[in-house]
Amino acid sequence: MLPGCGKFYHGECAASHGPTVPLNRAFRCPLHACLSCFITNPTNPSVSKGQLTRCIRCPVAYHANDYCIPAGSVTLTDNNIVCPNHFTPRKGCRNHEHVNVSWCFVCSEGGSLLCCESCPAAFHRECLNIDMPEGSWYCNDCRAGKKPHYKEVVWVKVGRYRWWPAEVSNPKDIPENIVRMRHDVGEFPVLFFGSNDYLWTYQARVFPYMEGDANSKEKMGKGVDSTYKKALEEAAVRFKELQAEKELRQLQEDRQNHKKPPPYKHIKVNKPIGKVLIISADLSEIPRCNCKATDENPCGMDSECINRMLLYECHPQVCPAGERCQNQCFTKRQYCQVEIFRTLSRGWGLHCVHDIKKGGFVNEYVGEVIDEEECRARIKHAQENNIGNFYMLTLDKDRIIDAGPKGNEARFMNHSCQPNCETQKWTVNGDTRVGLFALTDIPAGTELTFNYNLECLGNGKTVCKCGASNCSGFLGVRPKNNPPSDDKGRKMKRKSQMKRKSQQEVIKEREDECFSCGDGGQVVSCKRPGCPKVYHADCLNLTKRPAGRWECPWHQCDLCGQEAASFCEMCPSSYCVEHRDGMLFISKLDGRLSCSEHDPCGPEPLEPGEIREYPPELMTTYPINFIRVHWAQIVKDWPPQSPVEKNCCQTYNVPETY
User: Domain PWWP spans what residues (predicted)?
Assistant: First the structure.
């Protein structure tokens, strides 16, 4: 519909391109929007502004600069290019063979992988939570049209060498002898770190470098020589330099355009969506504190108000202090004065205008209150539309606050591994509300942050850019422990640094054998931070590989399924506070905490070959745990010998030749 374009499309063909915009009864075709800018931020108004250069073979366009034009493009004129989509591999050229990584881009583990046919990406089908596709399959980035760009750090595969870090170079900036090397449309030169060699390659043999990759040696293979170690160090330094340049360029562009924060609707209280209800208690159900109106600071931060201690807000009609009550911050919206500002590397943020004392109420986190079904639907919609910003916060087991479409200033608070604020769940008039409170004294002008404690739902890890000294590198990963300081505030050197490597204790991130049966093989690992346990899927009766942030049964009580508080160190048996009495004890053999099934010196020892009998109704309710107990007694002297063992085989229909 734009005059002078003159291009025609089938409706399905036009809709398959993301930058296509429907306008009234017509549409604006993708030749009038920069694809690179659209992928970064579809709502950015500058997507369709400025000089564009267009591919002469397909309907894609880019801003005519080195930041937007994808690497491997052939420039014909100022307004025309041939884009990398038209690369054709040469037969017999090993460097033109497509190669995929051997690990999942979501969970970083191997196994049966779903491989993208346009780039090296690979995923577990369960991690993406999708059905097995028929025919060719492409990852979300490739379907959206994302390409490598100049001045990007990438991992490159060459022959049988390991994945090696390199920088995508502009052909204008490389030596003449490299330019004269044979290369086709879609190929671009890369400069390898560590060796300073050049190579022409293409999209199917590179994938983006991410912050923290230099420490992920388990992906890149064992044995790091000096050249490769040097390459990792140079890549990490160069990546930070390029990121700083990109962030500074973005900040300058935003200031020139007087760019405002992304639009949202400001609301003062939580708004329920769908079937979600906002609870309202009767006055007779609201707790009454013992404060008096004559107290110096009734119900204040320094008082002994029982409601404040239990995170209950006083009600003006119930509290004995009446109008002098200082525990009604949520109801009266006694927020600190804050301002939204543009940070250098983390988008928009929030800072305080005046000083805030430790424990002070900063703001309430408000938004649309949705249920889990609606939450997953919104996350799926965001993934399908390449939306990377989430504002969801768990309210209780059935409700989530989503401050994305509607909320207040608190939605702009960034994450930090060393935050100056924290979230607290208070009961206000019978319902749960989330408040942000200061962890320390905060001077005016300081950015306000809190720890997101993010749980991944099928996405890859999100890089953390908080810059704290104890930064974990990724959202959702526990922050590092700072080394202890002496009285003068200087960091103390750890004694372990003075020991030889042979004397250092090696702590494995993951165990090698299944925690249930003790054998090796293809296992699934627990995603709970700090848990090293792995299991065979068959040992847990899992029909498919668990997706997302899966936690093993060691963290749930065997009897009720609630959060476990005490654990057997010999098997996945564990119990909550209510059920642990009498179930676990200190083993007399090695001093470890264990259940009675693993210690012949326990309170009820088993004789060799003896099977512990359990009530039939208990077997029906908890078959998996108790079947494991039975088989643990006879697995060492298989095949079954005693009548008890043979009876056990008959009970569970297991042949003696199994």
Answer: 150-212
Q: Which of 313, 263, 333, 256 is nearest to 50 (CA)?
A: 256
Residue pair 76/56 in contact by the 8 Å Cβ criterion:
yes
CA distance 424 to 411: 15
Q: Does residue 448 have a pLDDT over 80?
A: yes
Question: Count of H helices and E strands in the chain?
Answer: 13, 31
d(CA 497, CA 130): 47
CA distances from 515 to 531, 573, 633 (A): 11, 10, 16
Q: How far is CA 262 from CA 185, 330, 585, in A?
A: 38, 26, 57
Pair 314, 287: CB distance under 8 Å:
no
Which SS3 state, helix, strand or coil, does residue 356 take? strand
Name every residue whose Cβ is closer than 8 Å to that of residue 490 and which is 6 or more positions away in sequence. Answer: none
* Residue 596 main-chain phi, psi, to 5 deg: -65, -15
Please tell me the predicted confidence (pLDDT) of residue 357: 92
- Amino acid 632: pLDDT: 42
Q: DSSP letters along 393-433, please?
A: EE-SSS-EEEEEEEE-GGGGPEE-SS-SEEEEEEEETTEEE
Q: What is the pLDDT of residue 206?
A: 94
Identify any residues that bridge with 341 across adjacent strands, giving them in sequence order. Answer: 349
Query: Residue 397's CB: how many other CB atoms inside 10 A?
Result: 6
Strand (E) or helix (H) holding 364: strand 361-364
Q: Please say whether the dihedral angle defined by the alpha carbons of residues 551, 554, 555 and 557, taken in this order, is positive or negative.
A: positive
**φ, ψ of residue 441 in degrees (nearest 5):** -70, 125
Amino acid at 195: S
Rg of the chain over CA atoms, in angstroms? 30
User: Could you read off the pLDDT of 460-469 as tens digits, one per residue?
Assistant: 456 777 878 8
339 token code pair: 């301002």
Give the pair of three-digit tokens for residue 164: 């090696």
* Nearest CA among 56, 71, 211, 200 for reference residue 147: 71
Give the span between the Cα atoms of 109 and 103, in whole angstroms.
5
User: Cα(336)–Cα(502) distance, rounded to whole angstroms?
Assistant: 54
3-state secondary structure of 46: helix
d(CA 490, CA 553): 43
Signed CA dihedral, 23, 27, 30, 33: sign only: negative
- CA torsion sign for 527, 553, 548, 117 is positive
Q: Are 166 and 193 in contact (CB under 8 A)?
A: yes
| Side-by-side strand order, sheet with 361-364 | 361-364, 431-438, 421-428
Question: What residues have CB less than 8 Å from 481, skipping those under 6 apart?
Answer: 470
Whole-angstrom distance, CA of residue 432 vs CA of residue 451: 20
Query: Is the Cβ–Cβ distance between 574 and 556 less than 8 Å?
Result: yes
User: How would you classify the pairing of strands 114-115 and 122-123?
Assistant: antiparallel
Confidence of residue 439 (pLDDT cuts 50, 70, 90): very high
Q: How many CB atoms lie within 10 A of CB 146?
A: 20
**pLDDT tens string 493-505:** 444 444 444 333 3
Q: How far is CA 455 from CA 92, 108, 393, 474, 635, in A?
A: 46, 16, 10, 11, 38
Q: Are 124 and 102 in contact (CB under 8 A)?
A: no
Q: How many CB atoms lie within 10 A of CB 124?
A: 23
Q: What is the DSSP letter of 474?
A: B
